[in-house]
Amino acid sequence: MDRRSQSDPPPPAWLDAADRDRIGYGSNSWRRRVRPITPLPDLPLVPHENLLDMNFLALQLDTLGPAEMIGLARLFQRTSRQIIDVMEAAAAAGDRSAVKAQAHRLRSAAGALCLVDVARQASRIEADAPLASQIHLQARITLLREARGMGLRALGRAARTIAAAQPESPSPPLSPNR
Known about the structure:
Number of strands: 0
CATH class of the largest domain: Mainly Alpha
Mean pLDDT: 76
Low-confidence stretches: 29-48, 170-178
Oligomer: single chain
Radius of gyration: 24 Å
Order of helices and strands: HHHHHHH
């Protein structure tokens, strides 16, 4: 039986019946017992399916070579983990400017490695940081961490596939003088 009165707003979609009963949602007394929860916007459960820009990756591999790309990816792997840790700490402390600065830094680095989804997630955090709730920023950072892991795995697979498909560079021709 729904005990909601006319003055209660409809329950948020993420609040199931058991939770509504537990907190007394709909009885008007829940407001005195539980601090209102700000519902999160609809967030994807997994990062966007477009993890990499394959055309740009092929160009980067051609320009830099596989060894340099591997070095950049390893550097990104180490530093991005630290950046996300700093972002989480800043979000927990309510330091929105630090969250925004770290998101900008990560977005720039991810773009150079063709990590489209990481760059997209970081860009969202950078844009949301000044006004978003702490819970929203923490949820976005969690998605960013997941996107980072998935992106790095996809980058490794794609780089190996592209490098294997490229013909080996031919040996330089012998000079006619030798």
